[in-house]
Design goal:
Number of helices: 4
Distance between the termini: 68 Å
Organism: Desulfosporosinus lacus DSM 15449
Largest sheet: none
GO molecular function: sequence-specific DNA binding
Domain Insertion element IS150 protein InsJ-like helix-turn-helix: 6-44
Protein name: Transposase
InterPro entries: InsJ-like_HTH (IPR055247), Trp_repressor/repl_initiator (IPR010921), WH-like_DNA-bd_sf (IPR036388)
Strand content: under 5%
Shape: elongated
Oligomer: single chain
Order of helices and strands: HHHH
Length: 101
């Protein structure tokens, strides 16, 4: 799987038109059809590069999502810990109860 940086590099090479699409595809071991799709996607999304507001919103959403996932994981771990402590408390109370009999 090609990273976004690799895809961008390949598409830029196609846009320079210094080599044919087939030559570039052969050099990178990627099908010409796939490179053509990347090129179309690249061209369609070029305005987003200049839309800083959109980029900032996407970054904030990404950060928020990561923070939310981390908090959900922490809640899950705390729930497990609490359940374990409650069981241990019940066991300790049961042992103390048996000793007092």
């Amino acid at each position: 799987m090609n990273s976004p940086a690799e895809k961008a590099k390949i598409v830029l090479e196609v846009l320079r038109e210094e080599s044919t699409l087939n030559e570039i595809a052969t050099n990178y071991g990627v099908s010409p059809q796939l490179i053509s799709r990347w090129k179309v996607e690249f061209i369609e999304n070029m305005p987003a590069v200049f839309d800083k507001k959109n980029t900032e919103v996407k970054q904030l959403k990404k950060d928020h999502s990561a923070e939310k996932e981390d908090l959900i994981n922490q809640i899950g771990q705390l729930t497990v810990d609490l359940t374990w402590l409650k069981k241990k408390q019940e066991q300790v109370l049961e042992i103390r109860k048996r000793r007092n009999l």
